[in-house]
Design a protein that fits this description.
CATH topology: Leucine-rich repeat, LRR (right-handed beta-alpha superhelix)
Number of strands: 11
Number of helices: 3
Domain F-box/LRR-repeat protein 15/At3g58940/PEG3-like LRR: 57-176
Strand content: 25-35%
Distance between the termini: 30 Å
Helix content: 10-25%
Largest sheet: 9 strands, mixed
Protein name: F-box/LRR-repeat protein 15/At3g58940/PEG3-like LRR domain-containing protein
CATH architecture: Alpha-Beta Horseshoe
Order of helices and strands: EEHEHEEEHEEEEE
Shape: globular
Strand order of the largest sheet: 1-2-3-4-5-6-7-9-11
């Protein structure tokens, strides 16, 4: 679960345990490491495992409080409401990877990404979103709040995405569109790599 500068929490590797035992082990581990500088934090709940979103919020808050630079969150069940606001105001974060899984069919309450009013990620350089539905407004909010963002990869995440504007963006990859209608306009004068595919 832990190594120098990194913490990896993957419930799939401990699914033979009761969840309460798993959560207790994780909480005790984090308590022991309360005075560390954290480089990478990985949190993974794949498949159909039940997720205690209170624990997820607590563990992500721990990572942010310890100056995490790379945050990798992979959840098998989509819930746009669980992400703590602190993710989007983390001054140390350089790379954010979110994979949320698919929302339940026709579950309108869980479509799209719920963003806080304030986004400020001054160190963010790389953003990877997979199955996290973002539209033009969502992406604009993230780009405007991330002055150093250079690399964006959207996989099965572009929902009604019509316009991407950034003076810093160098790489943009979009794999999988849905809800397209008006085409895509890109205004990024420093873009050196662009890849777009309809399939995920």
């Amino acid at each position: 679960m832990e190594s120098d500068g990194s913490i990896r929490i993957n419930y799939g590797e401990y699914e033979h345990w009761k969840y309460e035992k798993f959560a207790s082990v994780v909480n005790n581990m984090l308590l022991r490491r309360k005075n560390v500088d954290l480089h990478k934090f990985e949190l993974c709940f794949k498949g159909y495992h039940l997720i205690n979103f209170k624990d997820v919020r607590t563990w992500i808050q721990y990572a942010v409080n310890h100056g995490v630079k790379v945050l990798d969150v992979n959840l098998g069940r989509y819930d746009k409401t669980f992400l703590p606001r602190c993710i989007f105001t983390c001054r140390s974060l350089e790379e954010l990877n979110l994979q949320m899984g698919e929302a339940p069919y026709d579950d309108l309450e869980h479509e799209g990404l719920m963003l806080p009013d304030k986004i400020y990620l001054p160190s963010l350089k790389k953003l990877n979103l997979c199955d996290v539905e973002v539209d033009t407004l969502h992406l604009r909010q993230i780009i405007n709040g991330s002055p150093g963002l250079e690399d964006v990869h959207l996989s099965n995440s572009a929902q009604y995405l019509e316009h991407v504007k950034s003076n810093m963006l160098k790489r943009l990859e979009i794999h999988g569109f849905f809800g397209r209608g008006k085409g895509l306009t890109i205004a990024a004068p420093h873009l050196t790599h662009f890849e777009c595919r309809y399939g995920p």
